[in-house]
Amino acid sequence: MRWYVLRRLALVPFVLLGMTAITFFVSQLIPIDPVAAYLGGRGAAHSDEAERAIIDALNARWGWDKPIPERYWIYLTNLLQGDMGDSSHTARGVSTDLANVVPPTIELVVAALLIAMVFGIPLGVFAAARRGGFWDTGFKVISTLAISVPVFWLAIVGFTVFYGRWGWAAGPGQLDIFTRPPPEVTRMVTVDSILARRWDALFDTLHHLAFPALVLGLVIGFYFARVVRSEMVDALESDYVRTARGKGLRRRLVLYRHALRNAVIPVITLSGLAFGSLLIGIIVVEPVVGWPGLGQYAFTAATRLDLNAISGVVLVISLAYVLANLAVDLMYTVADPRVRDGMKS
Amino acid sequence: MKSLSAETTAGPAGPPGADGHLLSVRDLRVTFRAKRPVRAVNGVSYDLAAGEHVGLVGESGSGKSAGALALVRLLPDYAELDGSVTLAGADLMSLSERELRSIRGDEVGIVYQDPFSSLNPVLTVGKQLTEVVRKHRSVGARAGRKEAARLLETVGVPNAEERIADYPHQFSGGMRQRAVIAMAVSPRPALLIADEPTTALDVTVQAQILELLQQLTSEHGTTMLLITHDLGVVAGVTQRLMVMYAGRIVEASSTEDVFARPAHPYTVALHRSLPRIDTRQERLVTIEGQPPDPSHLVEGCPFAPRCPSRIDRCAVENPPLMTLPTARRAAAAGWEPLAIRERDGNPVPGPAGPHLTACWNPPVPEASSTGAGGNG
Q1: A152 within 8 A of A284, measured Cβ to Cβ
Q2: Strand pairing of B240-245 and B53-57?
Q3: Mutation test of the interface with chain B: which of A233, A237, A240, A247, choosing the one with the most B Cβ atoms within 10 A?
């Protein structure tokens, strides 16, 4: 078991190396001069001579005039020292930017996954227990709708209605402008508020978190619910559930202890996949609601051809994805004793 | 296996129900809803007395498992049940699901066919045992676990104290079945339904499991309904046999009678298909043909197409369950079901009941070459 984890962790650097290679070489395929992309609008404002000097300075620092393999080598050695280059749209180091935008996104992703599970799993059980009935049919219709609605549309319409018209949802950002932020420790405002016992700030940031987390969480939650439902239907027809009913156990025990314990195992795999779709979801939802996270950063970087920032975002997302999959495999061993024993041998 | 002995002849002992029977089943029907409804059980009636061990024999698809699980309504939603089931005076067909919960497990224990799928793979054996113990009487978690370990020990699982922490996949098939048996007998049920308890197990383990069932049920005077397709299994364990074919009981009598004087061609064929040691056989004997498709209604006796002693009447009229002397004369005399009923009453397989058969032309005992079965 421990060896399994170590072996998986040892693979992480190689996966990341592969990711850097892919993002680096793919971004070289973009028919654009990296210097021009870096300077963007600023480039044209200077005289030829001044521009030459800037270009030379940039080339001297990043080696943008060197052949591609050499540039990759320079990129890698810089990366190992924590230097991902500067972002052209924030004019700060990409690593500094990422340290600021990743914590809010972790909050959002965790909140969305929690909502999806807390809401989706019982809903799936509910529908499965009433299979073929009125509620089950209603569930099928609504969940199909919920899954087919594009997240960005849901975010825009929802935000317009719930924030713009009714004012139930909080506005952009993580806190109201009148709320004094808690001291920065983890840069996750919820955690920092708890650490500083600032309940007003905690309440305020949860209010801000609620809307984007609900938008992302509900869509994934319906997805979870559908899988739980079909797994529960299978489990309820299984021999071991018949055994449990034959013992005369209460319905709740049969449903939750016997059937659901088996039906949630595929949900673990699904959360890994859902994690991937969440990372896409944040890129479309965060800019809409003004959540200052990785998604918004990635969105801006992509629209402004901020190549360094894009590479940094891709790297962070791949790292998150690899770790999430490792976590999924580990959770499997907790949920399914048969897998646990399979790994011992 | 023990051999049949005289003292095991059935007799109603201690009448818990109104009519002196522990269990009375009348005209039980099970239909699985489908495009073409599957009639798994077509009007089965029988009585069980307290403490007796009765075998229900038939090939796969004859409706024996469906009929047994229907007793406590443990079938999927798409099964429609009809008829009446009375257990110790309680009408199980009219009880609510909630009331039925106190019957299941507590009054009726069930041992299932496949111990590889009947235990929950993600819960420890101890947990699955403890929940039975704790349902039956209110004990704490610790006492429940202790009782679970004790139960596991009584069914012959070594190192029970440690093994209750194991998951089912860490148990062998025989051990799993022992655990299932422990769950079934722990609340001391009045009736134990053993649904093909040895079918999925190795031959060497089969005998041990049967012996365990025999021992546990005898100890507590538990009634056992032993369902099997294997005549060898019921021979040493049961006092009475009921043979099922196509959802009906086609022969019923004491185990001795059914083995020594089978009175239905299907039973004779079942005997023939048992491999024998004492005569040299070139090939195993099989029953020609297939059992009827339960989603098709057939006219006449469902066994007729496969029957060696078929007569003309078999193709048009399904024989009712008759006493043997009636059956021998009925076809020849051309009796109508009404006349047969007048003579026999309405015979229901029960303790100390007569030898019953549902055949217009019952085989003559001398003609059948079978002796007293596997180990009689």
Answers
A1: yes
A2: parallel
A3: A247
Q: How far apart are CA B70 and CA B92, in angstroms?
A: 10
Closest CA in chain B for residue A332? B122
pLDDT at residue number A109: 93
CA B287 to chain A, closest CA, distance in angstroms equals 30
Residues from chain B that touch A234, judged by Cβ atoms under 8 A, are none
Q: What domains are there in chain B, each with its CATH number?
A: 18-238 (3.40.50.300)
Contact between chains at B131 and A253 (C-beta distance less than 8 A):
yes
Averaged pLDDT, B92-110: 91
Question: Are A258 and B119 in contact (CB < 8 Å)?
Answer: no
ipTM: 0.84
CB interface of A with B, residues 124-143, below 8 Å:
131
> B45, B25 in Cβ contact below 8 A?
yes
Domains in chain A with CATH codes:
2-80 (no CATH), 94-344 (1.10.3720.10)
Asked if A242's CB is within 8 angstroms of B105's CB, the reply is no
> Computed from CA positions of residues A46, A52, A57, A59, in that sequence, does the dihedral angle turn out positive or negative?
positive
Which of A242, A335, A337 lies nearest to residue B74, judging by beta carbons?
A242
**Is the model more confident about B181 or about B3?**
B181
Range list of H helices, A81-180? 94-129, 134-148, 151-159
Distance CA B141, CA B148 (A): 10
The more confidently predicted of residues B225 and B19 is B225
Q: Does B137 touch chain A (CB under 8 A)?
A: no
Q: Check whether B187 has a pLDDT greater than 70.
A: yes
Supply the pLDDT for residue B10.
36
A335/B76 touch (CB, cutoff 8 Å), yes or no? no
Percent of chain B clearing pLDDT 90 (strictly above): 48
pLDDT tens profile A69-89: 888 888 888 888 888 888 888
**Tell me: the pLDDT tens digits for B192-209?**
999 999 888 888 888 899
As a whole number, the mean pLDDT across chain B is 85
